[in-house]
Amino acid sequence: HDKKEMWIERYLPHTAEYKQAQYKRTQKYLKAAQKAKNTDVDIDLYEAEQDRVEVMAETTVAWQIYYDGEWVEFTPEKAQEIYTKAFWIVEQLQEEENSADVFTKG
């Protein structure tokens, strides 16, 4: 890929944009609990993982990545597609997010 560096830029958990993406998922589970009129709501772990991928995609703002033989233009939809297929990218982003979060709490 022409020896260009690949990078992904995202909002971190302390930002309003990240919090909004996270709150949207939390609200979904709260509404399900209210609808069931039960505080003991089962959470589908696959669905929860998809939520995590969606938050990653929604909090990505730009990238330069080479995937599946081509340079990919960033869109939140494309980010979700690639993050779903390439789970190792999500894991790396999560690791970086965790270390950045600790750093920013200083």
The tally of beta strands, per DSSP, is 3
Strand order of the biggest β-sheet: 1-2-3
Distance between the termini: 37 Å
From the alpha carbons, calculate the radius of gyration and give it in angstroms. 16 Å
Helix fraction, binned, reads 55-70%
Largest β sheet strand count, sense and barrel closure: 3 strands, antiparallel
Secondary structure tally, helices: 4
- Global geometry: elongated
Query: Uncertain spans, ≥5 residues at pLDDT below 50?
Result: none
Strand content: 5-15%
Order of helices and strands: EHHEEHH
> What structural class do you assign from the helix and strand content?
alpha+beta
Indicate the mean pLDDT. Answer: 86
What does this structure look like?
This protein has 106 residues and is of the alpha+beta class. It is built from four helices and three strands, in the order E-H-H-E-E-H-H. The protein has helices at 16-36, 45-58, 76-85, 87-105, and strands at residues 7-10, 60-67, 70-72. Strands 1-2-3 form a three-stranded antiparallel beta sheet. Helix 2 (45-58) crosses helix 3. The model has no long low-confidence stretch (mean pLDDT 86).
Element layout with pairings:
Blueprint: E1 7-10, H1 16-36, H2 45-58, E2 60-67, E3 70-72, H3 76-85, H4 87-105
Antiparallel strand pairs: 1-2, 2-3
Structure in a nutshell:
The chain is α+β, with helices and mostly antiparallel strands and 106 residues long. The protein has helices at residues 16-36, 45-58, 76-85, 87-105; strands at residues 7-10, 60-67, 70-72.
